[in-house]
Amino acid sequence: MKAAVCTAYGPPEVVQVREVRKPVPGRKELLIRVRAAALTTSDTRIRGLQYPRRLQLLLRVVVGVRAPRKVMGLVLSGEVESVGADVTSFKPGDEVFGFDDRFRFGAQAEYVCWPANDLLAPKPAGLSHEEAAAIPYGGLMAKFFMRRAGVRSGQRVAVFGASGANGTSMVQLATHAGAEVTAICSGRNCELVRGLGAAACIDYTAEDFTASNVFYDVVLDAVGGLKHPPSREAVAKVLTTGGVYVSVDETMPRFAQADLEELARLATEGSLRPVIDRTYPLDRIAEAHAYVDQGHKRGNVILVMPS
After folding, report:
1. CATH number at residue 145
2. CATH number of the domain enclosing 92
3. DSSP characters over the chain
4. Which end of the chain is more exposed for a tag (fewer CB within 10 A), N or C?
5. pTM for the whole thing?
């Protein structure tokens, strides 16, 4: 089968599509025929070893010393081809989507084996595989950090980095929760985020929202340190008494099966819209990595597997 393999840590060119052995499911695993996979900023950061020095050694131990030892990819949508002897939750032919929160990787390939008790759920009805693959990464990140911030109805919420995978999910989910959302992104993306439910949009290239007289109950940093968000000291100036600032860099998120199932329900009913910037065939994966590296993607970049 064809799969995306990193030959080293480095620029996009180190990612190559190679023929590798098709996996065989264990007793508690599913063999999934991948139809679409998300190319996330986590994928590109791992490929480029774009982490603080203190974390680089840990990453090499977990992922690979000289290069990632596994096929890349954490997010997929596809079809169950076969199941292990102990699997009862899924059957061949089921359409599924999900996120590998245990860092087994493997989604950017024609086939992958994941445990049946991993973060997998039936694909949302009415969505294509490309659309379904655009939901788990940003959606689960948004659910975790919004819960950490205590986002609730009636609050005024600002989302910094509102046009990326995390940000577009935060805007939609916070709006759905009943919050009044201000999206902070580049001006070219204001129409997008308003269409997702944002009540207001601030172009961070033209205006510093921390210097305004508008106050927020919650400020969510959807992008983290690589995008140079405002400091906590700056954000504190626009927080209400008891207001909260939460960044995706704060902690390693923990995801829940119930959240993935809720995302599927919201997507099915139209309350959560997958946002896709570009799609690439698997054999153009290096080009896709180069695009994500530019740091300006809107929502998600999706890889389409060979049919």
Report:
1. 3.40.50.720
2. 3.90.180.10
3. -EEEEESSSSSGGGEEEEE-PPP---TTEEEEEEEEEEE-HHHHHHHHT-S-HHHHHHHHHHH-SSS--S---SEEEEEEEEE-TT--S--TT-EEEEE-TTS----SBSEEEEETTSEEEEPPTT--HHHHHTSHHHHHHHHHHHHHHT--TT-EEEEETTTBHHHHHHHHHHHHTT-EEEEEE-GGGHHHHHHTT-SEEEETTT--GGGSS--EEEEEESS-GGG-PPPHHHHHTTEEEEEEEEETTSS-----HHHHHHHHHHHHHTSS---EEEEEEGGGHHHHHHHHHTT---BEEEEE---
4. C
5. 0.95
Is beta strand 156-160 parallel, antiparallel or unpaired with respect to 119-122?
unpaired
Tens-place pLDDT, residues 240-295: 999 999 999 999 899 999 999 999 999 999 999 999 999 999 999 999 999 999 99
Structural domain including 85 reads: 2-135+274-304
In contact, 110 and 283? CB cutoff 8 Å: no
| Contact of 17 with 303, CB cutoff 8 Å | no
- Is the same domain home to 229 and 104? no
* Structural domain total, the chain: 2
